[in-house]
Amino acid sequence: MKITTIGLDLAKTVIQVQGVNEHGKIGLKKTLRRNQVLPYFANMAPCLIGMEASGGAHYWARKLQTLGHTVKLMAPQFVKPYVKTNKNDAADAEASRYERWHHIDVYL
Q1: pTM of this prediction exceeds 0.85
Q2: Are 73 and 51 in contact (CB under 8 A)?
Q3: What is the number of structural domains in the chain?
Q4: What CATH number does the domain containing 84 carry?
Q5: What is the largest CA-CA distance in the chain?
Q6: What is the pLDDT of residues 71-89, one digit of tens each?
């Protein structure tokens, strides 16, 4: 199954990853430590990655873009409407993968 869109939620020590295929079926749910993120995405085919904009999001966006991925950031107030359950890291990762985003530019 080819993952086409990924939602990331950044936390202090772990990053929640959720990916879907071209049909919208969830094909990836993973928790990574910060030191595992770049090696993991280096071995993955380029795809669209969405994440909630925060202090560290621009850092991760630049790193992921150097690996060939397309990264889009979403303002936190626009993530909340997409969260289906209680607010937690996994729910935020799922909400961040939607393509109907209000995008924020990545600072280079």
Answers
A1: no
A2: yes
A3: 1
A4: 3.30.420.140
A5: 34
A6: 988 887 766 665 655 655 5
